[in-house]
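Dear Dr. H.,

I hope your travels went smoothly. While you were away I took the liberty of generating a structure for the chain from your last submission, since the lab meeting agenda had it listed for discussion. I wanted you to have the full record in hand beforehand rather than looking at slides cold. The sequence, exactly as received, is reproduced here:
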Amino acid sequence: MAKETTTTVKETPDPPEKVLPPPVDPDVQIAKLRFWARLLISMLAFFLFGFLVIKMVDKPDELTSSSRDLINLALGSFLPLLGMLGKHWFESDHEQIVKPKNEGPTQFEQRVDITAPNQEKEV
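The corresponding predicted structure, in token form, is as follows:
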């Protein structure tokens, strides 16, 4: 009797390559960060202004005269700030990020002659 030998070869496919997201431009990241920072500062300013107004209007007879004067000063100082915030968000053009120009050398070379006092300098 003859022996029959069969071999099966199982090929495993290569694992799929990781698809990396495209690199993000650092200027775009900086612009987004500036937007969120300015938005946060603006919202804090508006909330603080609203808090001061509510404090003045809520119960004005319970405030002492010194507290009322301080709140009036704070409200007066917030009015130009609110005007600048409105101008920033609704009227002005936002600055564009300008990339620096590549001017000048990119590599520097420095030569140093190290000789002892009794040696001659090589040319």
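Two observations you may find useful: The mean pLDDT is 79. The helical segments are 26-58, 65-90.

With kind regards,
E. W.
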